[in-house]
# Entry
Amino acid sequence: MFGLDHTIYHYLSSHPASELLLNSGAILNKLGKGDALAFLCLLLIIFGYFQGNKVTVKNGAGGILVLILSSVVQILKILIGRARPQMNLGEMHFIGINFFKDGFDSFPSGHATASFALAAFFSKRYPKAKIPCYTVAFAISLIGRVYLRHHYFTDIIAGGLLGFLIGSLTEKKLKSWIEEEKAVEPEKENPQTKIEFPKQTNLEKLGLFIVLLFSSIVLFIGLDSTALWDRDETEYAQAVIEMNQKNEWLIPTLEGEPFLEKPIFLYWAAKLSVQFFGKNEFGFRFPCALFGILTCLATYFLGKALFGNLAGLYAGLICSSSFLFVGGARLLMTDPFLIFFTTLSLLFFVYSFKKSAYCKTFLILSYSAMGFAVLSKGPFALFPFIIFLIFEWYCLENKSPLNFFLKKKLPHLLLLIIPITIAFPWFAYSFASQKSAATNFFVADNLLRFLKGSEGHTGSYLYYIPVLLLGLFPWSFFLASSVFKEWKDRIQFKTKMKPEIFLLSVWCGLLFIFFSICAHKLPHYLLPAFPAFSCLLAKMFAEEKESFQFFKIPTFLTIALAGCLFLAPLALYMVRPEYASLKLILPFLFLFISLKAGFILLSKNQFKLFFSMICLDSLIVFIMVTLFSLPWVDQHRVMKPMGLALKKFAPPNSKIFGYHVSEPSLFIYGERRFPKIEKESLNELLGKPIPTYVITQESRLKEIAPSIPYFILDRKQGFAENGGEMSLVLVSNKI
# Structure
């Protein structure tokens, strides 16, 4: 058998590779990874959830269990220690138990094990898909692993057999659980086809005030407690500074060059803010915080329209107390504007279902908000259009293609003229005046980011699961309870998903799936889904019909995660005490203790007090982090102090250079731009006959040791966002 390995490997090595097979193998390798296969199972669960099919959901869950069990192959890899083909050590090179050496984990193939395990499981669950399942598994193993010489043939044979056994045995064990049928109660209510609007009460004014006050405190307090962060914040801020210097309103520039990485709305808002508040951190960040508050208010009205006044209050508070939302709305980025306008578009779309003479007006307003969202982020912001069409199809009784097109699709296609009309003039002008930069925006900043990713911002297909877990904290585990509760009710009463739940679920699900597939990944990409997540959570809390037992598990998990957030800075303090302090630890210690106290309220079925305590805990934590933790972190950052030193020591007309160092924050706080030098030597720079100032890393200065006399004017040790730990110095050839 091992002789077959030698024959196949020798044949592949001695014949030219096929470009088609190489490209196909690269794609198959990505598909055969555990995270990609788990994501496919997750899609099956999501599909079953929307379909209301319990068997489909259990099949997806069973697939994930199969993948978990398949990870046993990693133990075999360690115990056997076979060299991979790329090591060129021969097919019979085994080193035995190996924990540390790379390249000695060839037998058995993990890709083959996982793909054949899923193929065996799903071919039994879906017999008609047997041939496609095994075809894909063989393609992953033979083309992705053997042809690309990641494995020997016997590696995939062993992995395939192991995977087949795992998948078959797991399906046999789970079959009775998957196919079990429980007696259900007769249907108690019919699914609605229109959203019913609850009557208004006096709680509306009070709820609106509470959300406004809470979100204002969270987003405005200590907004200037840290310097602008490199590079997104500082690049946008520098572009705004240059626009103000030139009195430019249409084409932002960065270091004098057209900067069309993002559309224009951010620059308009920041430009006006800086003119009013001044060129400082608060002035740059104010519009983002303001639009964050407006988003919380829009979420309040959205929850109120869908589920009642109390749910509206809860939705606004949940949104304004979620960790990732608060963090994103306190930074100079495009996302706060995108989130607000897309949430506003969703809100007006919901209002359009109200039986009144203003239905068409609200639809026009919905698509108008969509147009400003496009001016904030680009063509991606048209995604509500797709969700609206899906929702219209769901609510339509006669779902024939012609009826759907005439009654629903055609009107929405015509309404698309509105956002295009709003956004087109600026895009047309930017393309006409700066064709190269505008083309780069559509191709590199949109299409290529989706297909390939850029700047190292890539990740697993499961990337947004931990993002959602931490970003929606302290509400993330309750979201799972909310989804489970809605699912349980539908299964119990055999009803369709209510339209309002369907609309929010599609909104969240489509964004989650889209960004999971997208190659370029950043945590804040998921933020447009947070208002919808907040409304789903608010419905569960507002109903107050569940028992302590129902909330006990998510509350316990929330407390456990709070404990981990407390232990993380504590561990950092023990390992690197210079980069941690009690100011980092105390906010999360407080959160951990207060959540445990809230658990007592929950055990007494005091749901409103329990909810209020979580909100209050979050508010106090945000205040502590903003006023104590972040300023402590900021004092260890090197760029702002070095920029201020440059402003202090370097006269206006002096020569300034960044020697292998350049960040926009140096330009902003030093109040001047200067070139980054990498080819000239320090001797050449410091040897100029005029006063010259150079910013560089101290380690590089010591390594080069210039022969020209120089003076160190300032030194700052700490870290930079894009350079890690470093010590910067400002040197000059003149005192």
In short: DSSP finds 31 helices and seven strands in the chain. Residues 548-575 form the longest helix (28 residues).
